[in-house]
């Protein structure tokens, strides 16, 4: 039986041999084709294999919470990856954006809050960072919670030159928690689910 206190994998980056790396597409995103091999648990090296890697850098997501009124604000916007989604490709999500060169995670959080919600927030509570889909992309998401007065903040935001058309919507926290706990697919993206579940565990601390 594995020791639950020891969660580190047996291998590290040095157990992967990158034989070749080629950029197959370089546009809004980048796709690379890698030929590689890696060490095996039973010893030795595995055979060479080809893998496509969706190259996407670090991203930041921010959950907006009003601890006085128990409200949460989410951004509703079109997402091409949700084209075949049962409820359609307009998704409810935390405010989010990509990290640009030279920016700190906190800088990105505050920039996106201004662009997508029209809010200036100083205090940010770190939730966690995670890999959304390590089987095919190198993206890492960093999540924060920002407390703010959400009374009357609903509206339309986003940068037109980036084709952003964002509707900021405000909901009672309990309504969103019920949706996450049920099979309701209104909120079905990982960043929003993780953030809301974190808030459920930490709401009393934030209210204090």
From TrEMBL:
One of its GO terms (biological process) is ribose phosphate metabolic process. Pfam families: NUDIX. Signal peptide: none annotated. Keywords: Hydrolase, Magnesium, Metal-binding. One of its GO terms (molecular function) is metal ion binding. InterPro entries: NDP_pyrophosphatase (IPR004385), NUDIX_hydrolase-like_dom_sf (IPR015797), NUDIX_hydrolase_CS (IPR020084), NUDIX_hydrolase_dom (IPR000086). Residues 55-200 form the Nudix hydrolase domain. It catalyses: ADP-D-ribose + H2O = D-ribose 5-phosphate + AMP + 2 H(+). It is an enzyme of class 3 (hydrolase). GO terms for cellular component: cytosol. PROSITE patterns: NUDIX, NUDIX_BOX. It comes from the Bacteria. Its EC number is 3.6.1.13. Its cofactor is Mg(2+). Mg(2+) binds at residues 96, 112, 116, 164. A motif (Nudix box) lies at residues 97-119. Belongs to the Nudix hydrolase family. NudF subfamily. Acts on ADP-mannose and ADP-glucose as well as ADP-ribose. Prevents glycogen biosynthesis. The reaction catalyzed by this enzyme is a limiting step of the gluconeogenic process. This is ADP-ribose pyrophosphatase. It comes from Microbulbifer hydrolyticus.
